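User: Sequence for ABC-2 type transport system ATP-binding protein below. Tokens please.
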Amino acid sequence: MPAVIEVRNLRKRYDDKIAVDDVSLTVQEGEIFGILGPNGAGKTTTVECIAGLRTPDRGEITVCGLDPRRDRAGLTRRLGVQLQAGCLPDRLQVAEALELYSSFYPAPADWRALMDDLGLAAKAKTAYAKLSGGQKQRLSIALALVGDPRVAILDELTTGLDPQARRDTWALIEGVRSRGVTIVLVTHFMEEAERLCDRLALIDAGRVVAVDTPAGLTERARIEQRIRFRPSRPLDDHLLTSLPDVSGVTRRGEFVIVDGNDNALNAVTTVLARNRIVAERLRVEQASLEDAFVELTGRHLDAVGPDAK
Ligand SMILES: Nc1ncnc2c1ncn2[C@@H]1O[C@H](COP(=O)(O)OP(=O)(O)OP(=O)(O)O)[C@@H](O)[C@H]1O
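Assistant: Structure tokens for ABC-2 type transport system ATP-binding protein:
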């Protein structure tokens, strides 16, 4: 598959703050490529440089073979951007916004069809200020697609949405991809990244810590199995920590969480049975992207700010 976006050794500093420090990544045609990291990791700065909205201090970027800073006109025809906090004038109506934006492009998509596809037809004459959060979000996606781009950058597109609206938006993004648009998705929601992305760059403190498929990344978490249960009687953690198949035991309320290898479930249930303890509400979970992130960075994804632990 040909590369649609190439970023090599990107660096961007704001005054004395290095926001992006040596980021390299390649996005292939037709994929949904995620950029996942905690708040302040440098995700938005990276995509703003890709979109030609910021000038890197160092590094090279090409989008569809173009330099985003030098070939602005060419880039506009190929790249659609939905950035965070996209805001329109309060009184502008949905259809007016789409028609206006489509007039900026030499070969735009059919904005009426886009309005239908995004479930906004019934809101065509509604002013921006009167739209719900989910509708505003859908409009911002429609505006990113109205130029009929080959590549779309979507930044934090489900932030602030309720779980149902978030799932609806995911379905919509899959629909956009199936029309052949390459998508770069910036997010700090693990579930979103896991569900939607073909490949992901994990970013932390301005650096790429890993690029892989969601499954490939979770394999990097040393935990192969996580067992969660409520012991029917008081349980001495040492019974479990002394097992060679177990790498860690933590408590969450009345639940015990055991991390270990493939044989951990077997070992834990045997010890519990020997001690006449029943594992109530027993669940076995696989490692998540969150676990991989913690393994790779020592930090949790939902940590606020690059210095948070
Ligand atoms: N215009 C700016 N001036 C100064 N510092 C900035 C500016 N924009 C971002 N930063 C800082 O650069 C770092 C990276 O910010 P960026 O917005 O790229 O991160 P992010 O991963 O997108 O975070 P979030 O998810 O919170 O948007 C942060 O420490 C941020 O405070």
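Residues 163-178 form the longest helix (16 residues).
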